[in-house]
Amino acid sequence: MKAAVWFGEDKLEIKEVPMPQIGDEEALLRVRAAGVCATDYHIISGKLKIGKAPNIQGHEICGEVVQINSRRTDIPVGQRCVVATSLGCGYCDACREGKAYLCNDSSEIGYYPHNGGYAEYVKVPVSAIVPISDSVSDKAGAILESTVCPTESLMRLGVPFAGSVVIAGTGPAGLAFLMVARLMGADKLIVLVRDEKSTKRAFAYGATHVVNVKTSVDPVAEVSMITDGKKADVVIEATGAKPMIESMPDYVKKGGNIILYGIPGDNDQICFPVTKMIVEEISVHGAVGNTKAWYPLAKVIESGKLDLESLVTHEFSIDNINEAFDLFRKKDPTLIKAIIKF
Ligand SMILES: [Zn+2]
Ligand SMILES: [Zn+2]
């Protein structure tokens, strides 16, 4: 089969490799589409030291079952599916609580030593298969994974009905937070931006207000005004930029929640106003979870309430996968999400 094999720093080559052989409780999927993730770019380019080469990456997978070896009888050959890629040991506290991503022995399909979806076929544990209906497109399926973590953190904390949400970031995660918070019943969806392109994008994906933190004289006062002096119930950071992260406590109401999703630089020291956060009972939550939102997301996409497909701005064949990563290299402003289509 054809696969994009990563051989180390900036070396991603199309190769013929042997078909994966499945064992007990495993399935072979024909990959229909795979999302191209910034994390993969950082690994492939050598910036993020995760895993080892050679490896086939790709952890955002939409596929079709072509072979299955399981006691489970409800997944027929031909079933279209997405893949819940987090794997844990299955028996530690974190795994028993349904948080395999916090397992000390966690791993993920698409990261060494597990080959992923930048290939014509991929082997997955049957337990990772999340069936999708035929009305869910391959495109939407391929990027479902990138929406799972934002969705899961909002499911965990809740968005108050008719409440206010501030979101920093208009990349795929920021827009996913925006769309899901809207679906969960938020009334004011305020996106913090730094330029005109992001302003347009935020409004296109459902923002009710946009505050430009670069040009505004007082962005915090603007958010206060929009929220009738209360500030936001939930504040979400999806840029990873140090000044933006440090400003998050300014936008949240007393007793409110901050979700941190964007990862700062290794040497960034983040300062938070701890006294204010204590006396105003402001809570901070890291978001990395990706086990519980799969089925709910598959449902809302199927019912047409969430248009994930609209996040896909670029499509490539596996032969041209390096062009997809060039979009990151060039910081292409038109990129939201790219997929590899088979
Ligand atoms: Zn990803
Ligand atoms: Zn475990």
Structural description of this entry:
With 342 residues, the chain is α/β, with parallel strands linked by helices. The two termini are 12 Å apart. 43% of the residues are buried. The protein folds into 2 domains: 165 residues, Medium-chain alcohol dehydrogenases, catalytic domain (Quinone Oxidoreductase, Chain A, domain 1, Alpha-Beta Complex); 138 residues, 3-Layer(aba) Sandwich (Rossmann fold), CATH 3.40.50.720. The model has no long low-confidence stretch (mean pLDDT 96). Strands 3, 4, 5, 8, 9, 16 and 17 form a 7-stranded mixed sheet that branches. Strands 12-11-10-13-14-15 form a 6-stranded parallel sheet, sandwiched between helices. The protein binds zinc ion (2 copies). One zinc ion binds next to helix 2.
Helix and strand arrangement:
Blueprint: E1 2-6, E2 12-16, E3 26-36, H1 38-44, E4 61-69, E5 80-83, E6 86-87, H2 93-96, E7 107-108, E8 121-125, E9 129-131, H3 138-157, E10 164-168, H4 172-183, E11 188-193, H5 196-204, E12 209-212, H6 219-226, E13 232-237, H7 242-251, E14 252-260, H8 274-279, E15 283-286, H9 294-302, E16 312-316, H10 321-329, E17 337-341
Parallel strand pairs: 10-11, 10-13, 11-12, 13-14, 14-15, 16-17
Antiparallel strand pairs: 1-2, 3-4, 3-8, 3-17, 4-5, 5-9, 6-7
Helix pairs in contact: 3-4, 3-9
The structure holds zinc ion (2 copies).
